[in-house]
User: Which sequence fits this backbone?
């Protein structure tokens, strides 16, 4: 099993054409990483460092590079595209794969063709039907963005691109899963990933136990709606983890925490184990122009074996749980463990004792 960095997120800017009510970075302006977007050269430096790291013997997977927010990455599209093109031209046969999470509003036919040309797979943030999406995912003038996002999705489909949807799993979506699944079924989406809403006021956030209860209902609804072709990224991640092949990224949208050891995030020029740790000096792993191998070493110095989740006392069938949750004084792994046991039975994961 890989014990190397397998996923790198790059937050290239902190500006956005939307102003979602639950956006962590806009809800807490002090948390913004600052106005200066990464330049083409700086993105190029990061990609070159990831490429060098990918040649190390412990790296046995192609590394996923995901362009994400604390802002809208398409507002930095020219810089991203140029840096990726440069890597393709200068590092033939490199082992990096490119992804992006976008709010979809700026997707044009031209950008989509350019994404195809550089092999970048986008996923689009969409919280279901307009009745759910538009109450939170709004423009700066307060107008809902659903129609704009759906136009971007249509363009992806017209270009023959697979459409993956990222849904922020807030209280509203959890309370209206029927409405949500009806919409997903009507639209014929093929892939959905739920991203648990956290670090916002309790009345909209989804707590750790609520999240695992919701995942269970999501698995049941997928079946109830007969959505055999729909892939729910979170459930697939648990299936892989239970088969002994976890992607060590994040339990908020995957199965297994890889903070700092297998998963890092560049918040513009600073590097952290996880986006939720941004701005906390304790968790800062370094700067954008340093070699990647230094970051897991520093993570180890911060948390040691206790934090990394590899010791037996913290092992679960699906691997380490969320480090932030584990640090809470009232932490109990029971909600996740119950879900895992239920899912292993239901999904009949071969070779799993649960
Ligand atoms: S699209 Fe993303 S970065 Fe922009 S406001 Fe919404 S949640 Fe925040
Ligand atoms: S610490 Fe929690 S939020 Fe951060 S990467 Fe790990 S699972 Fe995700």
Assistant:
């Amino acid at each position: 099993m890989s014990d190397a960095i397998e996923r790198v997120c790059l937050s290239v800017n902190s500006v956005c054409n939307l102003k979602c009510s639950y956006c962590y970075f806009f809800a807490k302006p002090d948390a913004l990483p600052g106005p200066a977007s990464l330049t083409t050269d700086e993105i190029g430096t990061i990609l070159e460092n990831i490429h060098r790291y990918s040649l190390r013997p412990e790296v046995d997977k192609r590394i996923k590079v995901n362009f994400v927010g604390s802002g809208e990455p398409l507002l930095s599209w020219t810089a991203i595209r140029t840096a990726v093109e440069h890597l393709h031209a200068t590092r033939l046969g490199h082992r990096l794969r490119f992804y992006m999470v976008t709010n979809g509003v700026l997707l044009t036919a031209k950008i989509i063709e350019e994404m195809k040309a550089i092999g970048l797979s986008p996923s689009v943030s969409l919280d279901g039907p307009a009745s759910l999406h538009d109450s939170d995912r709004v423009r700066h003038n307060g107008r809902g963005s659903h129609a704009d996002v759906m136009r971007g999705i249509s363009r992806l489909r017209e270009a023959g691109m697979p459409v993956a949807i990222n849904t922020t799993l807030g209280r509203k979506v959890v309370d209206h899963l029927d409405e949500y699944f009806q919409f997903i079924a009507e639209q014929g989406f093929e892939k959905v990933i739920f991203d648990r809403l956290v670090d916002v006021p309790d009345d909209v956030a989804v707590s750790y136990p609520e999240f695992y209860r919701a995942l269970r209902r999501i698995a049941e609804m997928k079946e109830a709606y007969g959505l055999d072709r729909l892939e729910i990224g979170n459930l697939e991640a648990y299936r892989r983890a239970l088969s002994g092949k976890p992607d060590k990224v994040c339990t908020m949208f995957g199965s297994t925490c890889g903070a700092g050891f297998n998963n890092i995030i560049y918040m513009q020029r600073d590097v952290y184990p996880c986006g939720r740790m941004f701005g906390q000096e304790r968790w800062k792993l370094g700067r954008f122009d340093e070699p990647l191998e230094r970051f897991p070493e520093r993570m180890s110095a911060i948390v040691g074996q206790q934090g990394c989740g590899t010791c037996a006392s913290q092992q679960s069938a699906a691997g380490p749980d969320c480090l932030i949750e584990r640090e809470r004084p009232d932490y109990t792994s029971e909600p996740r463990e119950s879900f895992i046991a239920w899912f292993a039975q239901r999904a009949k994961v071969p070779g799993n004792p649960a």
Observations:
- The chain has a mean pLDDT of 92.
- The radius of gyration is 19 Å.
